[in-house]
Amino acid sequence: MATRDIYETGFDEDVRTESSANQCPECDGRVTTNAVETVCEDCGLVIDEQRIDHGPEWRAYDDEERERTGAPLTAARHDRGLSTEIGRGTDAKGNEISGQKRRRLARMRREQTRGRWRSKAERNLAHGLGEVRRLASALDLSDSVRDQACQLFRSAQNEDLLRGRSIEAIAAASVYGACRCNGRSQLLDDIVAVATVGESRVTNAYKTLNKELGLPAKPVRPTMYIPRLASDLDCSERIRRRARVLAEAAEEAGVTTGVHPAGFAAACLYTAGQEQGRWVTQCAVAESGNVTPTTVRAHYETLKEQVA
Description:
Layout: H1 3-6, E1 17-19, E2 31-33, E3 37-40, E4 46-49, E5 59-60, E6 66-67, H2 99-114, H3 120-138, H4 143-158, H5 167-181, H6 188-194, H7 199-213, H8 226-233, H9 237-253, H10 261-275, H11 282-288, H12 293-307
Helix pairs in contact: 3-4, 3-5, 4-5, 5-7, 9-10, 10-11, 10-12, 11-12
Keywords: Metal-binding, Repeat, Transcription, Transcription regulation, Zinc, Zinc-finger
Region (Disordered): 80-104
Domain Cyclin-like: 130-211, 224-305
């Protein structure tokens, strides 16, 4: 008995079309093709399946707007960006909705907010990742650094490092750790300035992350701070290049071991400015490097001895 005599075509199946060009390689029977596979109607042999869909992968709601399935997964949100957001006031096309529908959406939004988190740990994760996103936006960090900081916060929660510590402190330490791992010249004071906790708590949290997670943090060198401080002081390109040469020579000589990198970079810019005849005060470079003029003066004497 043929396969077509046993199974009946349902209403939800694809319409089959007969292919008279090819015959079944096994029984020379009749071959039919639908949108998924090519099958012999007599013996049931599947000749071809999983054909490539050559149609567009986007959905078109009008002639101009084309949308795909949605945004990619991101580590910056607790649910990887898969949750549903209920809008306010307007529908998908921007039209105003009635008052009855607005009240209905408000009730749905309230219930969604209540059932959004399955546990307190997930609620803490959502709060911490929101703080990381806020800090990254305030510091104008790239999306890659932001995602690394979010992943670092996830790792800290998985290792139970949030117990007894502030979520805001761990979030700020995650941002600072991501900057250190990427070799960015980001001062801890810059992160503390936009964070909601003090410097001591952020420092302790970063030490905990560095110790427990083994962060691949790169050593901070004075040459990393030269472009940033030169931009803050509006120095010329000649002074910037000279300051970089001084900093690299000091690093090779081992003079920068155990010193404040931003303070030593400020001293290099001050020395280069003095050589080029530009009057840059020690107070100005010390303020840009967040150090005292005494620190700049001490490093300046070291640089003079090295140049001499």
